[in-house]
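Re-run with default settings, no changes from the original entry. Doing this only to confirm the output is reproducible before filing.
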Amino acid sequence: MISILFSIRQWLRITLSLIYMILVAFLSLLPANDFPQLPLFPGADKIVHICMYLGLAVLACWSMHAEIKRQWYYAVIFFAIGWGTMMEISQYLMHMGRSFELYDILANSIGALIGVSIYMILVQLNKQLIQKGRKQVVVKI
């Protein structure tokens, strides 16, 4: 299963990553009154931030083949933290019920770090499967 993820063509990886990035921007900049008012525990939005940026980091690593050059991991972390900071600044500048929060930037950063770590683990698992003699599956889309 893991080897299938690593065999998907580059253009599809990049397309999926861009769609996800647009989704993160849309959700980050949507006015606060457009969100449903769900009774959640305090700080639940920080978990949402962590999850969104975890996904962003995993997809960015995947679309850039970060396993080829370790420097790409640092670039993804820098990009994800920068993107999250830019979204927070944009929320502040929009004046549409959203606010700038340093804890959101921290949650975004934690999500990016976890996402890169997860991707690195997936790369190691894929290498172990290949070394154990399992044939790598190639999916051409």
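The radius of gyration is 17 Å. The mean pLDDT is 87.
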